[in-house]
User: Fold these one by one.
Assistant:
Number 1:
Amino acid sequence: MKTASILALVGLVVIAAAAGWVRQQNQGQDSKWVPAEQDSRSPKRKDKVRLTEEEWKKKLTAEQYRILRRQGTEPAFCGAFYDNHKKGTYSCVGCGLPLFHSGAKFDSGTGWPSFFQPVSKDNVWTRPDNGFGMVRVEVLCARCDGHLGHVFEDGPKPSGLRFCINSEVLTFKEDK
Ligand SMILES: [Zn+2]
């Protein structure tokens, strides 16, 4: 009996660990999750950028691919742009679409580049993200459907929004 109880306990621990592992593998994905380019909310644009996963892997660095194509997140305070105070435009590393201007950037203290608005609401789109047991809103590029980060409702006025974006998926061109 005693051995059986111990075995049952070990079994439960293994199942719990496995469940946690599965959740980690499905980062950013809820039960109804579909790839962004298959999501009906993805904006219809004439200039849409569509590559195969193999083509994306060739075009991007491994870290860019992990974030842009696999809903990854870079570590806080490590990216190239969270502390960038130069004037210019931030564009998508996947397709070159301008996404944010330095005029909308602010120091959020989070360690990720933070903006209160995109250059145009047509250049990004959003969808719910219930991964990691959190209710968040994912921000994606309107042209290539790449994952950029998340948007939160604790930003500065007037928008009240905080677009929390990964440096890795941005390129920066300084204003001349
Ligand atoms: Zn893009």
Number 2:
Amino acid sequence: MDPLKRRVADAVDGLADELTALSRRIHAHPELAFQETRACGWLAEFLDGRGFQVERGVGGVDTAFRATLETGTGPTLAILCEYDALPGVGHACGHNVIAAAGAGAGAALMAAREALPPGRVVVIGTPAEERGGGKGVLVDAGVFAGVDAAMMIHGFDRTLLHQDLLGVVRVTFEWTGKAAHASADPWVGVNALDACVQTFNAVSMLRQQTRPDCRIHGIVVEGGAAANIIPERAVADFNVRGPSLEAMWALYRRVVACAEAAAAATGTRLTVTQHRDVYEPLKRNQVLLDVFAGNLAAAGLTEGPAAPDRLASSDIGNVSQVTPTIHAWIAIAPLGTAIHTREFEAAAAAPRARAGLLAGAKLLALGAVDLLADPAHLAAMREEFRTR
Ligand SMILES: [Zn+2]
Ligand SMILES: [Zn+2]
């Protein structure tokens, strides 16, 4: 390994206990989306203590931050931290590990600051991944303007540099009909639940013609008040997912058409509310993936078995649509442990998570060194981003 990279990797090892403590502290105090005041504060304090210029509340989001290390004119690289938890199951997505790995990578680069090629490393605290799409809010607020590459790691049951992430649009359908006695005067009523049921049936038929990397799933939120009243109101929530922006929006329009057709067939009035927190699909960047692949061994990692059918979504997709981005999965739990489970929550504070945290921090920091050192990577990365 070249001496600078050796130094950066050693700096991560030197911070091992502190980073593990930071990760465990966040794990022990789970905070939901946009309420991550303690985690945000601890991370900002840690980076401030290492010499970063820390701004809190960036992009108009209270629990977001940006910590900057500048060594001269050059590229700007963003290392992302997530730190929100889930209701009921705490850090069952292991965002405490993401947070500590991102902060650790930044601190390791700071430790070698005078030897770093000129440029800027910004550690960005991005709240609300699980709900609300914090990164989308930060993208819209311009926080990623001028960022040449964005990188983060996420804990998983295996190490994978890339896994497709689908875009997801959330929509609420609300059908309004007319209440009537369901036995004495059913012909006077207009049945909103029928429209809802018909929408589910139409979507089920549509699903037969969608590609395997698309997903449509929904629930009935309201389906009537009592069995002896024709339901005057029904409400359903749907998530529509696709592998590209085009595929996602095309499928979304088909699902809305199902609800509209059901409204027409039943004589109900339909209100469509498309929620603002769209998670865009992850746009991969092979140049960035190759740079990271070149550092896997140095970080002590090997890739695990591919899992191409396990398709989720994340707001990192929104970042990947505006700048070259990598979202690498790092093994922090035994193979076969699903995320968002109590088992994964326990794993996120176990010794294997410490190892994954340190390896993830190294992978990020070594990748940053490569990108700062070689402008050719950046040019190739940008060209691929423009044309993919
Ligand atoms: Zn999650
Ligand atoms: Zn997650």
